[in-house]
Amino acid sequence: MINVFDGDADIGRYERNYPSFGAETFEPFELDGAWYALYSSDYTATRVMSLPDCKDLGGEEPAPNDFCPIELYVPRYRKIKYTVRATGEEKENWSFEARAEKFTMPEDDDRSYGWTIGPWLSLPTGFVAGCIWGDDYTWKVQVFDLSEAAKGKIVRSDRFGHVELADKLSLADSLDFDRHMPDWELRATVIRRERRDVATGKLIDPYDE
Predict the structure, then answer these.
(1) What's 101's DSSP letter?
(2) Is 177 helix (H, G, I), strand (E, B) or coil?
(3) Mean pLDDT for all residues in the chain
(4) Which of 7, 41, 100, 102 can pair with 95 through a Cys bridge, CB separation 3.0 to 4.6 Å?
């Protein structure tokens, strides 16, 4: 049984049919001022619920041969805006998670002015670590489009390709995000796992061992 809390208040619960990764496969996020959560009551599927009523909105159906989630993650960030004094160019950076929590507002100087920091926001993109049942022993990462989560629609893809995540790191610690406008759109740095032959440097396929 997975219990859902809002602070100290118990607001709901659901059954999960696999004994592990219960906490890791529940991930709240905010879109357009409303709260939702990705969750996995069946170990072969990810779905979305509304909060705080814990109402199931839709999502994936159980599929034993599909991707099995073991951890879910929706990044949180704050928009930081300022103006370059020399050019008058307005810039916007997105500061994520721990960096945003520690961010201190710079003072106006001869390089920039007009610094502001916005409220906390969630990306309309979620991430899931897991594996295909019966696959090798490594966790892969895939991506959810959450733009229509309010309608119960979440779309998963492997847009990053066949990425094996590093051992002993959480999904949040395996992904680092930045966005610096107008220079570049949202980008991710992925800490991944590679196994290589020491003598030749050749990448080892886990299916060959």
Answers:
(1) H
(2) strand
(3) 93
(4) 100
List, as one string, the DSSP characters of 109-175: -SSEEEEEE---EE-SEEEEEEEETTS-SS-EEEEEE-TTGGGT--EEE-TT-SPBBPTT--HHHHE
Phi, psi (degrees; rounded to nearest 5) at 91:
-125, 155
Considering only CA atoms, which of 171, 172, 152, 160 is closest in space to residue 49? 152
The mean per-residue pLDDT over the stretch 56-68 comes to: 92
- The whole-number pLDDT of residue 40 equals 97
- Please state the separation of Cα 54 from the chain's center in Å: 20
Where do we find the tokens 């003598």? Answer: 199
The four Cα atoms 94, 147, 60, 157 give a dihedral, to 10 degrees, of -60
What residues form DSSP beta bridges with 44?
Answer: none
Cα–Cα distance for residue pair 24/39, rounded to 1 Å: 9
State pLDDT tens for residues 107-128.
999 999 999 999 999 999 999 9
- Copy the structure tokens of residue 25: 């496969």
